């Protein structure tokens, strides 16, 4: 576990933002889509996919705006998306 925590470092603000924004997008998109779709699981899957895709697409933009691509950002996006899905699906379980 210590090796995993060291990989993230001291969790810079950027990683926390990636996680938080992905969780919010996944939860909100999934929750909104549940009102328009018959299957809440499909709606939440779309929300999670949308959040993760936006996070991954942001990485090449970072390259062109003076930043750098980061695998840690993508992991934070994935964890945030999964967290948003987990929280968003609770009312339907």
Q: How is this structure best described in words?
A:
This protein is mainly alpha-helical and 93 residues long. The protein has one domain (10-92). The chain is 78% helix and 0% strand. The chain contains 4 helices and no strands. It has helices at residues 2-8, 13-34, 40-64, 71-89. The N and C termini lie far apart (30 Å).
Descriptive tags:
single chain, 93 residues, mainly alpha, 4 helices, 0% strand
Q: Count up the domains.
A: 1
Poorly predicted runs: none
- Describe the largest sheet: none
How much helical structure, as a percent, in the residues? over 70%
User: Over the alpha carbons, how many angstroms does the gyration radius reach?
Assistant: 14 Å
Offer a quick outline of the entry.
This protein is mainly α.
Give the arrangement of secondary structure elements.
Elements: H1 2-8, H2 13-34, H3 40-64, H4 71-89
